[in-house]
Amino acid sequence: MYHGNLFIISAPSGTGKTTILKKTIAAMKEIVFSVSHTTRTPRAGEQEGVDYFFIDKDVFLSMEQQGLFLEWAEVHGNLYGTSRSTIQAEAEKGLDIILDIDVQGARQVNEKFKDKGVFIFIAPPSLEELARRLAGRSTEAEAIIATRLANAKEEMKSIDDYDYVIVNDTVEQAVEVLKSIIIAERSRTRRDLSGEPLNLVF
Amino acid sequence: MYHGNLFIISAPSGTGKTTILKKTIAAMKEIVFSVSHTTRTPRAGEQEGVDYFFIDKDVFLSMEQQGLFLEWAEVHGNLYGTSRSTIQAEAEKGLDIILDIDVQGARQVNEKFKDKGVFIFIAPPSLEELARRLAGRSTEAEAIIATRLANAKEEMKSIDDYDYVIVNDTVEQAVEVLKSIIIAERSRTRRDLSGEPLNLVF
Lengths: 202, 202
Known about the structure:
Helix content of chain A: 40-55%
Oligomer: homodimer
Number of strands of chain A: 9
């Protein structure tokens, strides 16, 4: 079984992506979550170095200027980036890596690693259902929910940049499909035959 | 979730393919096994119309001449063929179909349905292990085992015609991987987006 795949996963805000990723990684071996850098304020329960590396905007911009990010994007007014060194370290261990990034970041990775990444989009069952789920998060103001819904509608247009789409009807089923995609990708002949490790030439 | 995929599965004799396919189909929904025609004598426990349609060689050759087979091949001195009408009927129901055919037949299907079929090769852990498993089938003479091993060695060279390879270390694990491949393929965007049903234009 070949490891060292790069799984790029995107989903509109509120689709349940974080829960799905955590459950999937907990249930599998030899796969790690690549922790992103962000200028966003931590939410309740989020841990530094586990969920994100929380940094100030000037630090982020300085890192970006030094070319330390593989991809970065502004989402809902906050900056998010994937540091090259974080991924490099995991890739060298031969582990499968999950990148949780938005559609803009995914497009940047796609340009750099077209045939190496496996692109997965997690979609809500419908925009109506997404609206209900976002409203259920009592922490957010109505205006923010409206913005997120408008963004979701826009992001859904990028689905054809992805190899797979997982519709999150229930978390259990979505985790099952994501696990299946990871197992299937590990059994691809093109990777088995080439024996080529994930080569992140920057 | 999109259905109507054509899974083409090959494996050297003695690899455990039949057991893996039966267990996988029993555990899943909306997937059927395409029953082949053969001139081979039924083995103990094999049922007409379930495992194969057992027919005489002259009937087989007459069907072949009428163009009734999607693919056919001679394997170990017996003829095996996939009837177009059998597949057509399942495809029209929108079901996923599993074709259990040898590397020659797979090559014929690949030429006809290149981008529609999902090609899966089941491999033994090693040729030594395959020899042990074939010897364990007490029904077969040593000369037949030697032929099967030589054929296996030859068939393994075709692995790069396939999309996936499943190494049958244990049946349980191989079934798990095959199920995962089927679930993953049902989540492909290219199929979801096209919404195109399996179109078997003969």
